[in-house]
Design goal:
11 strands, single chain, Pseudouridine synthase, 11-stranded mixed sheet, about 230 residues, alpha+beta, 4 helices, disordered N terminus
Length: about 230
């Protein structure tokens, strides 16, 4: 059965858990937290699974799949959020596009300005009022006949950052018609996946790396030998 926001088993999506935090593999189109659609959110499902209140550490966009981390107490929340603020967390994404960038390995730097009315971010090459610096590093892992697989290290964490930056260089993510792809994917998902999250345990300070395999679909499966 194809997963939709309301019909997956949350217990099957646990990636990692201990007494400080828990990580889930969020399906595309499941909201991380409650929104105006009324669809059951990952936060609500996760609290039902854990039988306790959870604290949202970070977010990924609704059309995106992959790792989402929740803290189980306020001490862990504060420590983990500080790592995100200090850019000590390594956030690795996979993306699929139909176009290649000019270089197969590189860094993208833009200034992003959020347009709340249209729920999108506008990317510019030069600083602008109310804009924030956005930096990512990428490499092309491989190509099929029509598509290309990117590995992206997110240095900053801006609204729709990867989507806006790839769109700005003429390489919109497959299915992301908001940022220039020619048509949407069935169901509204896009081919962007939060693949790995690496951070320090909030108490022991040991390195933790959590990985979520991309969703099962024909295009992701084409590139499976590469990740």
């Amino acid at each position: 059965m194809t997963e939709t926001p309301g019909n997956f088993r949350i217990g099957d999506h646990v990636l990692y858990k201990n007494n400080q935090f828990i990580a889930f593999h969020k399906p595309a189109m499941c909201p991380v937290q409650p929104d105006k659609t009324g669809d059951k959110s990952l936060l609500e499902l996760a609290e039902m699974y854990c039988h306790c209140r959870l604290h949202l550490v970070h977010r990924i966009d609704r059309p995106v799949s992959g790792v989402v981390l929740f803290a189980k107490n306020t001490r862990a929340l504060s420590a983990l959020q500080e790592q995100f603020r200090q850019r000590q967390v390594q956030k690795t994404y996979l993306a699929i596009t139909a176009q290649l960038p000019s270089e197969k390995v590189g860094t993208l730097m833009h200034y992003l300005r959020k347009d709340g009315r249209r729920n999108r971010s506008l990317a510019a090459d030069k600083d602008q009022p109310n804009a924030q610096e956005a930096i990512l590093h990428y490499r092309i892992l491989g190509s099929s006949e029509r598509y290309h697989l990117w590995e992206i290290q997110l240095h900053t964490g801006r609204h729709h950052q990867i989507r806006a930056q790839l769109g700005a260089i003429g390489c919109p993510i497959k299915g992301d018609d908001k940022y220039g792809f020619r048509r949407s994917n069935p169901g509204g998902s896009i081919h962007l996946h939060a693949w790995k999250l690496a951070f320090l345990h909030p108490v022991s300070l040991e390195l933790v790396e959590i990985t979520a395999s991309p969703p099962e679909d024909p295009l992701w499966n084409t590139f499976k030998p590469l990740f």
